[in-house]
Design goal:
Shape: globular
Strand content: over 45%
Largest sheet: 7 strands, mixed
Structural class: mainly beta
Radius of gyration: 13 Å
Distance between the termini: 40 Å
Order of helices and strands: EEEEEEEEEEE
Length: 115
C-alpha cells in the first residue's frame, strides 16, 4: 500500500523560506515520478513541481526561480524548498506520486504566508 506523509508546513512571513518533506512507502520509489501540488481555498488543485525518476524537474510558472524540488532515493524522500514566499503561496500542499499508473496523494500540509 502506497503511503505519502508530508511535513514542514506552518505559518510563515512574506519573503521567508521553508522546506516541505514527503516520506514515501509502499512504492518502488526509484521508478516513480514525485511531485508537489497545492490547493488554495476556493481554487482547484494545481501542480507546483514534479521530478522524474531520472531527476528531470518541472515547475509551475508561478514558482519558477523560488521553489526547488528534490528527491533522495535512498531515503525515499521528496522535498520542496520554498523561498521568497508570497501570500498567494498560501495553500494546502500535497505530495504526489504515480505508482503503476495510479495516482497517490498524501494527506496534505497547510502552508500559510502572512503579508
Amino acid at each position: 500500500q502506497v503511503q505519502l506523509v508530508e511535513s514542514g508546513g506552518g505559518l510563515f512571513q512574506t519573503g521567508g523560506s521553508l522546506t516541505l518533506s514527503c516520506a514515501a512507502s509502499g512504492t518502488i520509489f526509484t521508478r516513480n515520478a514525485m511531485g508537489w501540488y497545492r490547493q488554495a481555498p476556493t481554487k482547484q488543485r494545481e501542480k507546483v513541481a514534479t521530478i522524474t525518476s531520472g531527476g528531470r524537474k518541472s515547475y509551475a510558472d508561478s514558482v519558477k526561480g523560488r521553489f526547488t524540488i528534490s528527491r533522495d532515493n535512498a531515503k525515499k524522500m521528496a522535498y520542496l524548498q520554498m523561498n521568497s514566499l508570497k501570500p498567494e503561496d498560501t495553500a494546502i500542499y500535497y505530495c504526489w506520486t504515480n505508482n503503476y499508473g495510479r495516482d497517490h496523494w498524501g494527506q496534505g500540509t497547510q502552508v500559510t504566508v502572512s503579508s
